């Protein structure tokens, strides 16, 4: 499934995500929240290791903020005039490859990184490559008469680690897929949060010591009506081939990690609330499936292309689309996630 020109990272993609407010339907997570999110999905990660792989140039947040020297109002997102921390140098983009930004110590609490949930596939790749398994029974079976050359073994593992570092450090593709998914999440993410009867649209307000995500005035219906996919196409230099490749590769990786992939034709009808109780790889697959579905919806909006489903665990070719006016509130589970219903139809139907 190789392509000659795969997806790459636009310049200052992280800043663009923040300044366009592309984190209202699917907010970025602070460091502690992202670590918790990843551990719930089976990744062996803590703050020290997360910062270490960033220092090695292998993985990074979407952006980072630092504590201003003087007392100031929090960074409100979407930014308003006079309150854009990027222009004040209190926030900086961290998506560039090769990496040029400052990486703080893992003990430094004066800075905070913010991550996208769609980066989990990239982080899983990095951790897997750097976490080889060693069968200790092979050493025990050698017997006392065959001394082990630990120096030789250590040199071999160091050579392997340096090879991984060289290959992963310049890897843009999976990072670019995650950034693209985050960039289009305001438009498409709610459509992935469905039990095939209702969808969930996040509404509300969240904050921490540095930022405030304020979406009280954000309306998903208006977002969908005013959506201009060509802007995303231009920013990421998309082509039908690039987008098709991104969709298919993410869908295949999702199916590969999903232990209940063959049951998806049934589990898709289970409520989102119940599916969030999944554990480990099954829960990670839910996140990756959402990303793949969003890429597929974008492909249809841009090119009228209903990407062929490479696995059983993605919806059949009849994609969920909105017939306007489609949305009515039918229930509310919390102040952050009211349930709204949508109509569905085959995109080829009149």
At a glance:
By secondary structure, the protein is α+β, with helices and mostly antiparallel strands.
What can you tell me about this protein's structure?
- The protein has 350 residues and is an alpha+beta fold.
- It has one domain.
- It is 41% helix and 10% strand.
- The protein has 14 helices and ten strands.
- The strands form three sheets. The protein has a four-stranded antiparallel beta sheet.
- A hairpin with a 5-residue loop joins strand 9 (328-332) and strand 10 (338-341).
- Helix 7 crosses helix 14 (280-303).
- The two termini are 33 Å apart.
Identify the notable features of this structure and list them briefly.
single chain; 350 residues; three-stranded mixed β-sheet; 14 helices; globular
Topology:
Elements: H1 13-19, E1 29-30, H2 31-40, H3 47-55, E2 63-66, E3 75-77, E4 91-93, E5 111-115, H4 120-129, H5 137-140, H6 150-169, H7 173-183, H8 185-192, E6 198-200, E7 205-207, E8 211-214, H9 220-226, H10 229-235, H11 240-257, H12 264-267, H13 272-275, H14 280-303, E9 328-332, E10 338-341
Parallel strand pairs: 3-8
Antiparallel strand pairs: 1-5, 2-4, 2-5, 6-10, 7-8, 9-10
Helix pairs in contact: 7-14, 8-14, 11-14
